[in-house]
Amino acid sequence: MGRFLWQAEPERAAAASITRFTREVAATGREVAAYPDLHRWSVECPEEFWPLAWDFCGLVGTRGGTAVERAEDPLGWRFFPGAKLNVVETLLNHADDRAALVAVSEAGDRTVLTRAELKAEVARLAAALRAAGVGRGDHVAGFLPNAAGAVTCMLATAWVGAVWSSCSPEFGADVVVDRFGQIAPKVLFGVTGYRYGGKDYNVAPVLSEIARRIPSLAHVVTLDRAEAPDGMVAYAAFLGAGAEPGAPEPLGFSDPLYVLFSSGTTGRPKCIEHAGGGALLRQMVEHQLHADLRPGDVMFYYSTTSWMMWNWLVAGLASEAVIVLYDGNPMHPGQDRLFDLAAAEQITHFGVSAKYIDATAKAGLKPAASHDLSALRVVWSTGSPLSTAGSEHVYADWKPDVQLSSICGGTDILGAFIGGAPTLPVHAGEIPGPTLGLDAAVVDEAGQEVLDAPGELVCRQPHPSMPTRFLNDPGKARYRASYYDRFPAFWRQGDFAIRRATGGFEVLGRSDATLNPGGVRIGTAEIYRQTDAIPGIADAVVVGQSHDNDVRVVLFVVPAEGARLDDALRSEIRARIRQHASPRHVPAVILDVPEIPRTRSGKIAELAVRDAVNNQPVRDLGGLANPQSLDAFRNRPELAA
What we know:
The chain contains 20 helices and 31 strands. Strands 5-4-16-15-17-18-19 form a 7-stranded mixed sheet, sandwiched between helices. It is globular and about 70 Å long.
């Protein structure tokens, strides 16, 4: 067990929402004296837990008569099958003069919308979408920065019963079309430029190319230009004269609201569809019970619209918190930019990546001495495992009385399997426990739970925020292969972890081939698409190397006949990946090898290469057609630094 860092004072724990919720559970006759008891009840009695969570957290809608329909097949469970709701009725409830969101740009521009103003703008846009023929089950996409307009577009999409997807404008056309091209959106909201790191980027040609390559689009709406490029329409013109929006479309609990995208290691990213009711209920449980988020609190998570944490952040509106959006480089113009934001906005709940915490530690930042963080109560960390040094740095140099919640979950469930709680202690390098309603555990290769030993992080019971389906996946074959391939009864998350006998978790890293530098998930296929187009490369494999409490992207290439991997070719590789994928996809290290390990069926053996690079035992060597090729990847001096 890591060094003890924090436990809430008795008065603070007693005042927490989770304590009040525990008392309500106890009033039903359940013995839930401590958090482990509460969690055990939540997974053993889901028919009781989820309705109580619905009512306690304030989800607006009718629950219907049945909370859970169990099935032998984990994909056959149904939650609240008779419910009717639309998430905007919860997210935009209490439309008054309190602030709903604050949007701050890198340049310092600040926009504030009250709850009444936000609802009015969402209603106007919902009316325009309905007038454009968008309705229940249609898809709407956003090529947008993390600004107020993105929230408005998402909520208006939900209002009319349509399905929302978004990505950041830093992505190249190929990456965007690989995603949005699969969902066939009717409307695309976009921008023609953005600012990052003090530099302005013109992405009008990218937006035009996306529009040209997605034939389903009836409207492409620009949010940052009064005069839209040819073939597009400016936002104000799209709104038109302003028809009546009508009431939000009533939906079932499991009707879709979002499509997010996997970082798939082969082929195009998988389209992961999420239900509005299931996702929002999960997020409200995490916000209110696990982080004690209350009306009037100020919630921030550094994210882009490409990451599921953006959806998670917007859900803070449902708890009547003020959400703070930041668009730009978190280290510009100085490394303390986000602490400036925290002090200026009096942020109570502050979320960043584990890499950001490590970076502030290495930079010697001591925001406790330089910034007013008196309002701060909770620090969230995710994206990669938080190091022991990083967690100790938060308590030594940020604030000694915060609840540090390292969380682990992801795009797959729009929430966290494991995280913190106001009534759980924090130990260095550990995640305090499983989240309510999710039966998270660590199991060995035989599927047996293990303690104080590494294994696979699994969830042993279905829950409402599981994806409804993957698009273009007949019979849910890809869905099952993604999560239930190894353990047919358990969801396998793809993380290696250790469950301590004391209840906490230590996450060791990804057990699949998805790259995760700086907490941003990257699919290897997106990099291969660019290397395949470079004449000087005959073959390539890209993996993540554990490095400096993070993961760095390492690309190995087999030069084409007559070519060699020199500085010119390295520059060409980096430039192409940066232009056509994104700056985040650019490898930190590029090395040459004589051949790429492949399976007997011809697939690139990414996991084998990753294990070799990280000095771990290579699993399933017998499945390789050329196992001797791994010798070129082991003990490379270029990777030792």
